[in-house]
């Protein structure tokens, strides 16, 4: 258990931090393993990151000195990013991309404000890329171009907020159903939209408990259902079986005009269509309402982004015309990142379906390699069949957890095997982990020996031994 952080410890660290900021103004950390402060306990974790003060022009530096210092800061920050990228294993981000050709675009404030399909009066946009990407996803999830609506979001969270909002607007008295292992944004959406919510427990795999879901649906039979299904949960990578949930809805007496299903496919929703095996496919040929993914996860991008696709007829319930935009408002955000669609378009165009399929196969293969390596070192693991998330016992050394930026929950940690994680990197990680475990075991053994010595000494002092 990481130490509980008390208010006084936070206050003390705030003082230290402000001293640290003063002395470190131009000394961005030398390249060292990432050491975030552990977060635990009841104190809300604000004000914990260090700050790089903004340089005021009137500080006693010449213009040239200031420019040199800025360049030095950015250069050492770039090194830090490279090191952190190298040692990253815990979050589902594909860090392997090269957008060199697009660098010139940062000169432009590209903004797709409003609806992707209706040009606003602001001309510096990338709607042609956005709609191209959306059409690609519409084909992936099997919905005709004239039947879908969607947009490129800020992230998977926005996709969930949108999907559940569309569900709510179509069924204002709908009850939200989702598993307890859903991403926190799902129940946050429920709270934001003041929806009654049913949190359903999970099976050992992390999938929604289908029997409990049925019981809840039967109990609430008079009200429509807005369901969030996980196409890969955050921690254990579990996939809720869409076909089974559809069967449960029928058994509970719900017809298609009485439910809305949002599929949260943040990571695995982007991988499942490319698997060469039986899986409960997510497709608009089935009665689902929306699907969302994060763009910076499997595809990979230098900025967070995502995609949400829904049915055109469903989104009508929340769209309205806005004269100021000369567009329609059906998105959560107003201004929207116009660079993100270009990154997604670029990667999808360069890799194509076949390149994506190869990436998926590689990740699934390497996830099994990691599982086998850990198990051969005596470390218990879990890997769902439809997942690239390898779950294992939480390493005891916090420094190790932070060095590899592992995401932990309770006593488990995971590695999400993404396209940038090679076998060589897995080898590095596992050997580091084995050494960490050996250090922990050695320290425990030494503690026992030390205690035994103390007892001996005590006995000897009393003339017993
Ligand atoms: C299942 C699931 N849904 C939604 C999200 C949120 O995605 P984002 O971080 O892109 O907002 C995550 C993030 O890890 C996730 O795992």
Automatic annotation (TrEMBL):
Its cofactor is pyridoxal 5'-phosphate. Pfam families: Pyridoxal_deC. GO terms for biological process: carboxylic acid metabolic process. It comes from the Eukaryota. Keywords: Decarboxylase, Lyase, Pyridoxal phosphate. SUPFAM superfamilies: PLP-dependent transferases. PROSITE patterns: DDC_GAD_HDC_YDC (PS00392). GO terms for molecular function: carboxy-lyase activity; pyridoxal phosphate binding. The modification N6-(pyridoxal phosphate)lysine is found at residue 297. InterPro entries: Group_II_Decarboxylase (IPR051151), PyrdxlP-dep_de-COase (IPR002129), PyrdxlP-dep_Trfase (IPR015424), PyrdxlP-dep_Trfase_major (IPR015421), PyrdxlP-dep_Trfase_small (IPR015422), Pyridoxal-P_BS (IPR021115). NCBIfam families: PRK02769.1. Belongs to the group II decarboxylase family. This is Histidine decarboxylase. It comes from Edaphochlamys debaryana.
């Amino acid at each position: 258990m990481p130490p509980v952080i008390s208010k006084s410890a936070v206050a003390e660290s705030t003082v230290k931090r402000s001293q640290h900021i003063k002395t470190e103004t131009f000394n961005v950390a030398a390249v060292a393993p990432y050491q975030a402060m552990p977060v635990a306990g009841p104190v809300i974790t604000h004000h914990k990151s260090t700050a790089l003060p903004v340089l005021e022009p009137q500080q006693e530096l010449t213009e040239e000195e200031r420019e040199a210092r800025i360049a030095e800061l950015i250069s050492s920050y770039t090194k830090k990013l490279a090191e952190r990228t190298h040692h990253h294993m815990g979050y589902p981000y594909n860090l392997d991309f090269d957008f060199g050709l697009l660098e010139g675009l940062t000169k432009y404030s590209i903004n797709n404000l409003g609806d992707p399909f209706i040009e606003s009066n602001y001309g510096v946009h990338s709607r042609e890329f956005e709609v191209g990407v959306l059409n690609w996803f519409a084909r992936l999830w099997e919905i005709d171009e004239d039947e879908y609506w969607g947009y490129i979001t800020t992230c998977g969270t926005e996709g969930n907020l949108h999907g559940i909002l569309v569900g709510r607007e179509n069924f204002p008295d709908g009850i939200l159903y989702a598993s307890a292992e859903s991403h926190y944004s799902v129940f946050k959406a429920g709270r934001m939209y003041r929806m009654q919510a049913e949190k359903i427990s999970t099976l050992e795999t992390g999938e929604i408990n289908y029997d409990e879901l049925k019981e809840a649906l039967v109990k609430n039979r008079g009200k429509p259902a807005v369901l969030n299904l996980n196409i890969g949960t955050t921690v254990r990578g579990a996939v809720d079986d869409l076909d089974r949930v559809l069967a449960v809805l029928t058994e509970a007496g719900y017809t298609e005009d009485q439910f809305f299903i949002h599929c949260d496919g943040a990571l695995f929703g982007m991988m499942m269509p490319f698997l060469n095996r039986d899986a409960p496919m997510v497709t608009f040929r089935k009665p689902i309402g929306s699907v969302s993914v994060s763009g910076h996860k499997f595809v990979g991008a230098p900025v967070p982004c995502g995609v949400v696709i829904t049915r055109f007829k469903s989104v009508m319930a929340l769209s309205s015309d806005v004269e100021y935009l000369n567009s329609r408002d059906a998105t959560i955000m107003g201004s929207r990142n116009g660079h993100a669609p270009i990154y997604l378009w670029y990667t999808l165009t360069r890799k194509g379906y076949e390149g994506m399929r190869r990436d998926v196969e590689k990740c699934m293969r390497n996830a099994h390699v990691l599982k086998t390596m850990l198990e051969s070192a005596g470390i218990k693991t879990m890997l769902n069949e439809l997942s690239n998330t390898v779950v294992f016992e939480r390493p005891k050394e916090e420094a190790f957890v932070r060095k590899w930026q592992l995401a932990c929950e309770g006593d488990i940690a995971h590695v999400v095997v993404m396209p940038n994680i090679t076998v060589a990197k897995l080898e590095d990680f596992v050997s580091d982990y084995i050494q960490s475990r050996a250090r922990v075991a050695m320290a425990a053994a030494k503690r026992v020996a030390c205690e035994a010595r103390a007892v001996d000494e005590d006995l000897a002092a009393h003339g017993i031994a």
